[in-house]
Specification:
AhpD-like; 0% strand; mainly alpha
Length: 107
């Protein structure tokens, strides 16, 4: 029976929704990666995707899984670095075209 707390995807696609929920449950349990590692990875993804509604939940889950403030901070800083690097590299050729550099000749 579907209760009031049922996810929208379970309401509209119970079979696939159940499979997705099972997948989510596995992502939150110990496996090859322990729960703490998975929790900080999910926090990094939420941060990268700028999911404010999700970040707080992921922070709580990371703490509950045993992550320290130092581990969480390092995770978020690495995520910020990767995001910035990806942004700069994504349009590298365009930036070089207008700003110069190893493949551009503007001065």
């Amino acid at each position: 029976m579907i209760g009031t707390g049922t996810s929208w995807f379970m309401l509209h696609s119970p079979e696939l929704g159940r499979a997705f929920q099972d997948f989510a449950d596995l992502c939150h349990s110990d496996g090859v990666l322990d729960r703490k590692t998975k929790a900080v990875l999910m926090l990094a993804a939420a941060s990268l995707l700028q999911r404010d509604d999700c970040i707080e939940d992921r922070l709580r889950q990371a703490f509950a899984a045993g992550a320290t403030k130092t581990e969480i901070t390092e995770t978020l800083l690495i995520t910020a670095f990767q995001s910035a690097e990806t942004q700069l590299e994504r349009e590298r050729d365009l930036y070089r075209q207008y700003l110069g550099g190893s493949n551009g000749h503007l001065s």
